[in-house]
TrEMBL record:
Coiled coil stretches, renumbered: none
Record-linked Pfam families: Rce1-like (PF02517)
Name assigned to this protein: CPBP family intramembrane metalloprotease
Family designation: Belongs to the UPF0177 family.
Residue spans crossing the bilayer: 12-31, 37-57, 77-97, 117-139, 151-170, 176-196, 208-227
GO terms for MF: metallopeptidase activity
Organism of this sequence: Candidatus Enterococcus moelleringii
CAAX prenyl protease 2/Lysostaphin resistance protein A-like domain sequence ranges: 120-211
Keyword terms: Hydrolase, Membrane, Metalloprotease, Protease, Transmembrane, Transmembrane helix
C-alpha cells in the first residue's frame, strides 16, 4: 500500500514537471531560431513523461485492460460515438464563446514551425498521440477516480476538467479563454471515465480524439510528401 501511494504521488508530479519545463525552462534556451531542436527537446520531455507514467501504473493498466478487453468490439464502437460527441461538444463551446476571446496571437516560433517538413510534423504529432495516457492517469484516475465520496467526486469532476484545460494553455499562446473548450472536454472525459469505471474507457476515447486531430493528418501529409505530392 505504501509503495502504491508513493507511485501515485510521483505520478501527480509528471504533468506539472512537463508543464514547468515547457512553459518556463525551454524558453530560456536559445532555440527560437531552431524550431527543429525545440521540437526534439519537447518531444523528448513528453516521451520521458509517458514512459514514467507507464512504468508507475503498469499494473493498473494491465489489470484494467483485462476487464476492458471483454466485448472489446462494442466498447470501441461506443468509443467512436463518444469521440464524435467530443468534437461536437468542442465546436458547441467554441461557438458560444465570443470569437475575439479565442484569438491566438502568433509568435516567432510559430513561423518557424510552419517551415517544418512533413517528417518533422509527424514527429510533432507524437506528443498528442501519446499524451492521453499520462493525462488520463493524472486527471481522470488520480484526481477523480481515487475519490469515493460522491460530493467530493462531483467537485473533482469540475476541478480536474479545469486543470486539464489549463495545461493546454501553451497550445493557445497563453490565452486562457481558448482553454475553456478543453476544460469542458476534460469534464466530458471525466464523465466517460466514471461511466466505463475503467481508465481504458477514457484513454481510448481521448486517444482517438487526439489521433484524428494530430497523427492522422500528419501521417497523411507525410505519405503525400513521400510520393512527391
Amino acid at each position: 500500500m505504501e509503495q502504491s501511494n508513493k507511485r501515485q504521488w510521483w505520478g501527480l508530479l509528471v504533468i506539472p514537471i512537463e508543464f514547468i519545463i515547457g512553459q518556463y525552462l525551454l524558453p530560456l534556451l536559445p532555440i527560437e531560431n531552431n524550431p527543429k531542436l525545440g521540437l526534439i527537446l519537447s518531444t523528448f520531455i513528453f516521451v520521458t513523461g509517458f514512459a514514467v507514467m507507464i512504468y508507475l501504473f503498469k499494473d493498473l493498466l494491465k489489470a484494467q485492460w483485462q476487464l476492458y478487453r471483454h466485448k472489446l468490439f462494442w466498447r470501441l464502437l461506443i468509443s467512436m460515438v463518444l469521440v464524435v460527441g467530443a468534437f461536437m461538444l468542442l465546436q458547441l463551446v467554441r461557438g458560444i464563446i465570443p470569437a475575439h476571446l479565442l484569438t491566438v496571437e502568433s509568435n516567432g516560433t510559430d513561423s518557424g514551425g510552419a517551415q517544418l517538413s512533413a517528417g518533422w510534423m509527424l514527429l510533432a504529432a507524437i506528443t498528442p498521440f501519446i499524451a492521453p495516457f499520462a493525462e488520463e492517469l493524472t486527471f481522470r484516475y488520480l484526481l477523480l477516480g481515487k475519490f469515493t465520496n460522491r460530493l467530493v467526486r462531483a467537485i473533482m469532476l469540475f476541478v480536474q476538467g479545469i486543470l486539464f484545460g489549463l495545461i493546454h494553455i501553451n497550445n493557445f499562446g497563453g490565452n486562457v479563454y481558448a482553454t475553456i473548450p478543453y476544460m469542458v472536454i476534460g469534464i466530458y472525459f471525466g464523465v466517460i471515465y466514471l461511466l466505463f469505471k475503467n481508465i481504458w474507457g477514457s484513454i481510448i476515447v481521448h486517444w482517438m480524439f487526439n489521433s484524428i486531430n494530430s497523427i492522422l493528418p500528419a501521417l497523411f501529409l507525410f505519405i503525400l510528401s513521400f510520393f512527391g505530392i
